[in-house]
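My convention is simple: the sequence line spells out the residues, with the fold written below as integer tokens. I include a record here:
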Amino acid sequence: MPPRLAGLARSLPLKPLPSSISTLSPFLLPFLHPPTRCASILSDLRDNPGAFRRKRRLGRGPSSGKGKTSGRGHKGQKQHGKVPAGFNGGQTPDEVVHGKHGFKNNFATRLHSLNISKINSWISQSRLDPTRPITIKELCQSRCISNVKDGVKLLSKGSEELKTPINVIVSRASAQAIAAIEAAGGSVTTRYYTNYAIRQICAGKMDPVNSLQSALPRQDGEGVVEQRRYLYRLPDPTSRKDIEYYRDPAHRGYLSHLVPEGHGPSLFFKTPGTGHKVEKSTAKSKEKASENRIW
């Protein structure tokens, strides 16, 4: 193994510095004696843990767990070769006998339905605190919902049992659920979530309520209330369909504060009477135009 440069540097005597730079020696010392490193640094190079995975060796004895049949089982077509997907052993495929019906919408929003009756039951069991906002984080931590994909939709089943005012923040809510909660003295806010955002919110790495386009935080006499810092930022909608939904005050969207008074939530259709009036050309305007001509 090659010798250590640091050990050699200690064994060699250091030359005394000139008296002219003795006053600047504390500043020039790092440049006069650069840091040394191990001469055998190449022997210490290796991948990060988990960066390299060894290839699975098949048919190398029973101790490996993949010996003899190499994990394919005994005999048959699946051991000797490959079987096409949906192959029924020569029988007429089901899609030929019954035909293909319907389709799978890959762009559908998978919302978890949540009824008011379940929230009321969790409050009566002291598993949810009605004095604090009920967000997706509180619902997941209390096991009121599970396996949430793209969001939560609030429904009105059991709304006649609700007597406690609650503040709920979910992805979407039905009109009956909004009316029932507001009749009890509570409030409903719908805001945009993604599958990734829900996972980070449940892990405590993302704010479940506030984002860049949310309403400004409340202010006290001394100024804006300081909020907790999170590792990731909650996203806002980018598609027109989602933006228009959360701009609608009827849906109690969190972007309704961006809609001017008298305007609708649509980004394309304008409310009648709110656009700019186009002046028609008259005789006076033509005379003014003729006066401004150079030739």
